[in-house]
Write a structure and sequence with these properties.
ABC transporter involved in vitamin B12 uptake, BtuC, 14 helices, 2 strands
């Protein structure tokens, strides 16, 4: 038996391998479920679907979280395509959320609604962009390790968020900001759905449309613009990029600013369109999950939507399994983990081929 790297693979074959991986994962999960808890796997899978899609409210919650996760993954795409391992999306999202909450708390009712949204969006983009630019600048100037640098920036952002929460506690001493602009003269001001339209789940609907537009713009940017070409060249080989006259340090700084800005925009969506509050759990681990999404999607924003939908479905459904059957939460996480393991493993067979028999000399 020998293993060799594939020169290429048809898209249909790649998705066929992924589909087989998911089917195998479900079969393995079924055996694990029965072996551990002696419960009919069909019933468990029914709860998995019910937890994510059982009611219209759950559907919208799943769609909401899917869109936020996709937005963060879109932000990571240009950095990852450049081989700049930005694991700081959590922090970039949090600082975007902090400045969004700042405008909502301090200027609702004092500024025109349209101007307020301009300030919120611009501030989130700038804050996230600066948070991304800092490690980009240090990488370009002193060749620092971007993985460690962006990771440490996450912890700084968490502390800044803790300070903001203590500053804006409502009511005082609650250690929580509470729902921002939930009533009174400023009711719903700064909530994105209230600005655009009225109706059921309006915040989530506009979140979907905005993220779909962002996915299309990022796809076009990476695939058809000069900047996208430069990012790809730097990602393939820095030496080749320098030989071609591309200023690599400038590409680092520019691309990380863009990456951070989009993740900061995800923070704006999380506060303005989803939770309507700010806390240290606003990011909720999505920044790290988005790393998996971006990598599995091969930096394709449209594929990111599908991967995000699958991971969100598993997350929501796993919680329902634990509730329905009175299981420890770790049992439900095993189900999600096995499926994710097989999906990740399928990427090996997409990139490499295994042949049985002795290798020909």
């Amino acid at each position: 038996m020998h293993i060799s790297k594939r020169d290429s693979i048809r898209r249909s074959e790649a998705w066929g391998i992924r589909a087989i991986a998911i089917v195998l994962a479900l079969i393995i999960d079924a055996f694990i479920i029965y072996a551990i808890v002696k419960i009919n796997p069909i019933s468990v899978y029914g709860s998995l679907a019910s937890g994510a899609l059982g009611t219209s409210k759950r559907v919208w919650f799943t769609v909401r979280d899917c869109m936020i996760l996709t937005c963060i993954a879109i932000g990571l795409a240009p950095a990852f395509k450049m081989r700049f391992w930005n694991v700081g999306a959590e922090g970039q999202m949090l600082v975007g959320g902090i400045v969004t909450a700042f405008w909502m708390i301090n200027f609702a009712g004092r500024l025109n609604t349209a101007l307020l949204f301009v300030c919120m969006i611009a501030s989130a983009l700038i804050a996230g962009g600066i948070w991304g630019l800092i490690p980009g600048f240090f990488k370009a100037r002193w060749n620092t390790n971007e993985t460690l640098f962006t990771l440490m920036m996450n912890y700084i952002a968490i502390q800044l968020t803790s300070y903001a929460v203590s500053k804006w506690e409502n009511p005082p001493g609650s250690n929580s900001v509470g729902t921002i602009n939930a009533g009174g003269d400023v009711k719903n001001i700064g909530w994105i759905g209230n600005f655009f339209s009225s109706g059921y789940n309006k915040d989530y609907m506009w979140t979907v449309l905005i993220v779909l537009l962002l996915a299309a713009l990022m796809y076009l940017y990476l695939r058809y613009t000069k900047h996208g070409y430069e990012i790809a060249v730097v990602g393939d080989s820095e030496n080749t990029a320098r030989y071609a006259g591309i200023r690599v340090p400038s590409i680092y700084a520019r691309t990380m600013t863009l990456s951070g800005a989009v993740c900061g925009f995800a923070g704006f969506l999380a506060v303005s369109a989803v939770s309507h509050t700010i806390s240290v759990t606003t990011a909720g681990g999505r920044g790290f999950t988005a790393i998996i999404v971006a990598w599995l999607a091969k930096m394709n924003p449209f594929v990111m939507i599908l991967i995000s939908a699958l991971l969100t479905f598993l997350d929501k459904g796993a919680g329902q399994i634990a509730t329905d059957f009175g299981l420890n939460e770790y049992v439900s996480q095993i189900i999600s983990g096995v499926i994710l393991f097989f999906i990740l493993g399928s990427e090996f067979f997409i990139n490499y081929k295994v042949k049985l028999g002795a290798k020909k000399k």
